[in-house]
């Protein structure tokens, strides 16, 4: 598998994957839904390794939360399992939270989604001070997959690169 990772200003880490599409009849949404178990496992692993002291400090994330770590793991899972996708972590404009955007273009049609396990399931707080909620067990029902448009989630440079790379 040949994977190129680029950092695009304002978007975060964008992963592009070059590989032939194994099953063109399966749409992106069904592929994402089939990965929910892996998303949940990755989130649970991040949560279980998050060790805050009595003041709320963790040696890896300081006083911050883990949504960015969960989102980065989800990007890795998607790009490892779904070929030819445009996939990135996104920082919300509405709250201190990081989630995932993923898109694919086939036959001049875009299919684009956000993927998220909202922070309210596993942490509380705001800004850069978050507290781990106790005894969280992640479930597939916590994974949100919402339809969107690529121009709402990716900058023009990323979309143009993707089209240049994969438009058939």
Question: Could you explain the architecture of this structure?
Answer:
By secondary structure, the chain is an alpha+beta fold. The chain has one domain. Helix content is 30%, strand content 30%. The chain contains five helices and eight strands. The protein has a six-stranded antiparallel beta sheet with strand order 1-2-3-4-5-8, with helices on both faces. Strand 1 (2-8) and strand 2 (12-18) form a beta hairpin. Helix 2 packs antiparallel against helix 3. The longest helix is centred in the middle third of the chain and has 15 residues, at 67-81. The protein is elongated, with a radius of gyration of 16 Å. The chain starts with a strand and ends with a helix. Mean pLDDT is 85; it is low at 1-25.
Task: Note the total helix count.
Answer: 5
Q: What coarse outline follows from CA principal-axis ratios?
A: elongated
Report the β-strand fraction as a percent range: 25-35%
Overall pLDDT score: 85
| Order of strands, widest sheet | 1-2-3-4-5-8
Determine Rg (CA atoms, Å).
16 Å
What pattern of helices and strands is seen along the backbone? Answer: EEHHHEEEEEEHH
For the record, the count of structural domains works out to 1
Kindly state the number of beta strands.
8
- Please give the largest β-sheet: 6 strands, antiparallel
Tell me the distance between the termini.
20 Å
**SSE-based structural type:** alpha+beta
Q: Which blocks of ≥5 consecutive residues have pLDDT under 50?
A: 1-25
Classify the helix fraction into a percent range: 25-40%
Reconstruct the topology from this structure.
Layout: E1 2-8, E2 12-18, H1 28-34, H2 36-49, H3 67-81, E3 86-91, E4 98-106, E5 109-117, E6 123-126, E7 129-132, E8 143-147, H4 150-153, H5 156-166
Antiparallel strand pairs: 1-2, 2-3, 3-4, 4-5, 5-8, 6-7
Helix pairs in contact: 2-3
């Amino acid at each position: 598998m040949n994977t190129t990772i680029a950092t695009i200003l304002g978007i975060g880490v964008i992963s592009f994957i070059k590989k032939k599409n194994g099953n063109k009849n399966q749409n992106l949404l069904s592929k994402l839904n089939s990965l929910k178990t892996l998303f949940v496992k990755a989130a649970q692993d991040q949560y279980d390794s998050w060790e805050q002291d009595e003041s709320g400090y963790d040696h890896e994330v300081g006083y911050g939360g883990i949504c960015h770590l969960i989102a980065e793991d989800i990007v890795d899972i998607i790009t490892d399992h779904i070929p030819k996708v445009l996939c990135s972590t996104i920082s919300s404009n509405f709250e201190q939270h990081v989630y995932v955007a993923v898109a694919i273009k086939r036959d001049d049609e875009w299919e684009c989604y956000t993927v998220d396990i909202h922070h309210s399931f596993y942490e509380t707080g705001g800004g850069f001070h978050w507290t781990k909620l106790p005894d969280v067990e992640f479930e597939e029902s916590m994974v949100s997959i919402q339809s969107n448009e690529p121009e709402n989630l990716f900058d023009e440079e990323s979309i143009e690169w993707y089209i240049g790379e994969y438009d058939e």
